[in-house]
């Protein structure tokens, strides 16, 4: 869809403004009774017609250039046809005004009748300016809608990016906690292994001591066992007195 800032539409708006002004001048020319003013308005209308015809010719040349490679200018055949129709309509409007003024150079009554007829014919022409203005407004509305949708999509993408960044931070934090737990488990596993090794070593030493004691008690007999018990009792009493009474 062509942009409202397309040079064609800029020139078109200027030409349509000139045509509207030309129609207003024609209306003054139709109802003036002053001969001098009528001559002045006739010259003004004819000069305006020539100027507008020249501008329309230049616009037709630009359309012809664009028609050689429409895709380069971002337009299609439908748009080119619409532009050709508008220039044709503009040329018809200017030609009608020009005929009305040239016919008015005859008698006054004839000129008034001819001018009125031409004016009615001019009024029956399609109002391309309004249609084009509506199309421009529609294009502008569509551009605004596309822009708003684009802005909404950009905001949505930005929000999703922020959520993904937060999710990434959370995953990294959870990963760090997982690594810490893993390291702690490895440390506890090493401690358990060391404790198991120490318990096994202590169990072996205890078994060795028990075997030695059993061998000594077996060799000493019952009398030796009693003497050993008395000796240990005496040692306990000595240590008790030493700790609590000194």
Summing up helix and strand content along with how strands pair, one would put the structural category as mainly alpha
Describe the global form. rod-shaped
How far apart are the termini?
111 Å
| Structure annotation, total helices | 5
Mean model confidence by pLDDT: 77
Written account of the structure:
The structure is a single chain. Helix content is 89%, strand content 0%. The protein is rod-shaped, with a radius of gyration of 55 Å. The longest helix has 117 residues, at 128-244. Mean pLDDT is 77; it is low at 107-115 and 121-130. It is mainly α and 246 residues long.
Write the layout of secondary structure elements.
Blueprint: H1 7-31, H2 35-68, H3 77-103, H4 108-124, H5 128-244
Key descriptive features of the protein:
single chain; 246 residues; mainly alpha
How would you sum up this structure in a few lines?
This protein has helices at 7-31, 35-68, 77-103, 108-124, 128-244.
């Amino acid at each position: 869809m062509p942009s409202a800032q397309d040079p064609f539409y800029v020139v078109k708006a200027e030409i349509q403004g000139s045509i509207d002004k030309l129609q207003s001048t024609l209306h003054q020319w139709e109802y003036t009774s002053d001969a001098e003013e009528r001559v002045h308005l006739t010259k003004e209308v004819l000069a305006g017609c020539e100027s507008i015809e020249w501008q329309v010719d230049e616009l037709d040349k630009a359309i012809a250039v664009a028609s050689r490679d429409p895709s380069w200018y971002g337009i299609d055949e439908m748009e080119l046809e619409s532009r050709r129709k508008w220039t044709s309509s503009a040329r018809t409007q200017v030609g009608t005004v020009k005929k009305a003024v040239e016919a008015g150079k005859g008698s006054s009554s004839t000129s008034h009748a001819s001018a009125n007829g031409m004016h009615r014919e001019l009024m029956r022409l399609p109002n391309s300016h309004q249609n084009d203005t509506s199309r421009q407004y529609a294009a502008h509305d569509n551009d605004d809608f596309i822009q708003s949708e684009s802005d909404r999509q950009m905001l949505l993408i930005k929000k999703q990016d922020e959520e993904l960044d937060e999710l990434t931070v959370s995953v990294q934090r959870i990963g760090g906690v997982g690594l810490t737990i893993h390291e702690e488990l490895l440390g506890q596993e090493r401690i358990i292994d060391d404790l198991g090794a120490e318990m096994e070593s202590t169990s072996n030493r205890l078994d060795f001591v028990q075997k030695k004691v059993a061998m000594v008690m077996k060799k000493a007999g019952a009398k030796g066992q009693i003497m050993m018990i008395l000796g240990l009792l005496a040692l306990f009493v000595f240590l008790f007195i030493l700790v609590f009474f000194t």
